[in-house]
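Writing this down once: the sequence line spells out the residues, with the fold written below as integer tokens. I am pasting one below:
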Amino acid sequence: MTLKIPRGLAASCHKTPLRAAWLERLPDVLRNLEHRWSLTLDAPFDGDEVSCSYVTPVVRADGTPAVLKIGMPHMEGEHEIHGLRFWNGDPTVRLLMADDGLGAMLLERCEPGTALRALPECEQDVVISGLLRRLWRPPSTQHPFRPLSALTKYWSDETLAQIEQWPDPGLVREGLRLFTELPRTEPMELVLATDLHAGNVLHAEREPWLVIDATPVQLLCEIAIGPGRNDQEIYGPARRRSRARPAVDVRSRSGGAAGRLEQRRFRGTRPSNFSVSYQSSLVGRT
């Protein structure tokens, strides 16, 4: 039987030879894990959110529902398994089994699994701000997490390689300047989740909302820049290209008990495909 590959994942894999080779090996990897972990596989999840991993609902030998996730090779997802171990289900899905070499994860299944994106945006902000405060915590003494400056350099290089697509060079260059400056502005060390947006938070039974995509970096501030990010994607480097935004957003989350969300919006003179989001949280500072 031909393996069904989600459209977004197939498109991502066609971009580099390394990913194409990974996709070619995927059927063998699935058969290996199905046998080794005693799983019954269902059809994979598909849709706009599925672009960097093969994710499918499974049932374990004891009848427990779970989710099998196998990450496509990409820089931002290198430490996802380590991040799930670090957060240990608080407030992420639990990691039940893993094969680090294959980038394979057997995860707790969220039921009913409704995405936070189904809620009004003002309610999404309340949930996300609460999750952020739980995710931001000091790293252990020995950890594999890269500094945020390495990730922002990677994003900057990606952006510079697409200079001919910049609709507003001044706006983009200001974003790149912030990429260099902001990761150095705080002396505290915290672990951040860099792909935290409403599509990566699901309604669950164990807790009302759980984070399903945990990609960690080390530092205090979090920045996101890229083409076509929408209002629901300012929380991390989500890759959807759904609609252009005519603004640069600078949002800061205070660490007060109310988890207040402040926003300043700077509008340019013409619509732009690029946005910059700078998020900082200082516990106890209002």
Summary: The chain has two domains: 7-108, 120-279.
